[in-house]
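Preliminary data (for renewal application), S-adenosyl-L-homocysteine complex.
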Amino acid sequence: MLLEGQKKYRATQLFTWIYEKKATTFDEMSDVSKSFREVLKQKFCLLKPKVFLRQNAKDGTIKLLLEMEDGAKVETVLMRYNYGNVICVSSQVGCNMGCSFCASGLLKKSRNLTIDEMVGEVLCVNDILCEENGERVTHIVVMGTGEPFDNYENVIDFIKIVNNQKAFAIGARHITVSTCGIPDKIIRYGQEGLQVNLAISLHAPNDTLRSKLMKINRAYPLKVLIEAVKQYIADASRRVTYEYILLDGVNDSLQDADELSELIKPTFAYVNLIPYNEVTENEFKRSKNAKAFMDRLIKNGVNCTIRKEFGADIDAACGQLRAKQEKIL
Ligand code: SAH
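Predicted structure:
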């Protein structure tokens, strides 16, 4: 670290000034010695991302397009569940995973987000909540643009910061990382000793279909993915959630439901069925079979729910707002 060799209490001081007192300059940090403030000024800056665009939905959802120091734009969403304020954080600028149904991948990855930029996403939303409602962010899902396990180290450090008592103190069980399925990182994640949740974007019950929908499956087929999930469960003693977007006529038949049940049975997982947010760029349509699909999974002994939808009147689909701004959609 850049501040190696400093006393521990310095870190506490800085965390308090940044997260609790919301300092915007080092000079405000009155209990920090002048000489140390000079060191800080030379090495760091206290910049937050700029809110480039904001959309408010009727249901209270807020979608922000944030601008980073180099001009990169990133989507962050606040959703208001009855159990808390959930922020959906992006982990990369663009995405290289190339899932055929997803608008985020329309803009290829230009770079990873840094730890402070991801923390900046939370800071921006937290400030809005605090000023406008006297509330704060209570849950985090790393489900925005990008593949978090393609930016592994930064995402783990980000989690440690938001989880820290002196920063946002968001409980590990209130933090979820979603991956398209990178086996070695799934295993590593299970060995971190963090009590954070893991969600896997599955979206298909067999390799033929999954490889068509998700490029990553060509590199890591389902057998390898499921083995990694089993290892994760053994190491972390935590259950995983599978995300499954229901696409009309593609993966939503009762036969698909049966095949899916068989596939995931050994991992005792929970399935989150996702209503598809249609994007004009592709042909995929939202399934009309969601209830029957869910009932079939339940009949097969699989725990599942249909994901609640937010922000129906704004650009809710992943990557949609940014792609529109960059004139892709
Ligand atoms: N790369 C990670 C996290 C970002 S995507 C992952 O793949 O999990 C977060 C979730 O949103 C994934 O399950 C993704 O498949 C889903 N998603 C992408 N586009 C969507 C759309 N148009 N409608 C609904 N869900 C979508």
